[in-house]
Amino acid sequence: MKTTKFLFAFAVLSMLLSACNKDDEDNPTPEVDYLIFGHFFGECQGEECVEIFKLEEDKLYEDSNDTYPNSSDFYNASYTELPDGLFDQVNGLEDLFPMGLLEEQGVVIGQPDAGDWGGLYIEYKSGETQKFWLLDLAKENVSDDYHDFIDAVSARIQIINQ
């Protein structure tokens, strides 16, 4: 009896593991056309209150509009290319993008800038998929799944602004 249970459990586990491997082959990580990221603060003065950047291919761009983003439409930007050295320092952010964001029903995650602590604007484009979000910088207001990405975005903005 124990042998039968063991064999059954082994067979189920083997099927699950082989299914995971097959899914990885059938659904590789999508190629990102571009990733737009930045922060915004409403109760703020100066140029650094809204900082929006775009990673695309092997270039990094900065928005010069510095307009506070809203939840009704994609950010309207006017981009200027930044030096290659900055791209090299912030490249790879698209690899840290939490794919769970693509499953979110709304564009506002948490309460961005509700208490003057700011928010992040994130826009993702891969093939036919193009979406944007406003994420709360107060990590206690968002899923743990997004914490590392929020930290990575904030760190890259600091690198660019040095």
Describe this structure in words.
It contains three helices and seven strands. Strands 4-3-2-1-6-7-5 form a seven-stranded mixed β-sheet, with helices on one face. The relative contact order is 0.17. The chain is α+β, with helices and mostly antiparallel strands. The chain has two domains: 1-30; 34-161, no CATH class.
Question: What attributes characterize this protein structure?
Answer:
single chain; disordered N terminus; 25% strand; alpha+beta; 162 residues
Strands, helices and their partners?
Blueprint: H1 2-26, E1 34-40, E2 50-56, E3 59-63, E4 79-81, H2 84-90, E5 108-109, E6 119-126, E7 129-136, H3 147-161
Parallel strand pairs: 5-7
Antiparallel strand pairs: 1-2, 1-6, 2-3, 3-4, 6-7
Q: Averaging pLDDT over every residue, what do you get?
A: 85
Number of helices: 3
Runs in which pLDDT lies below 50 for 5 or more consecutive residues are 2-25
Number of strands: 7
- Summarize the amount of helix as a percent range: 25-40%
In short:
This protein is an alpha+beta fold and 162 residues long. It has 3 helices and 7 strands, in the order αββββαβββα.
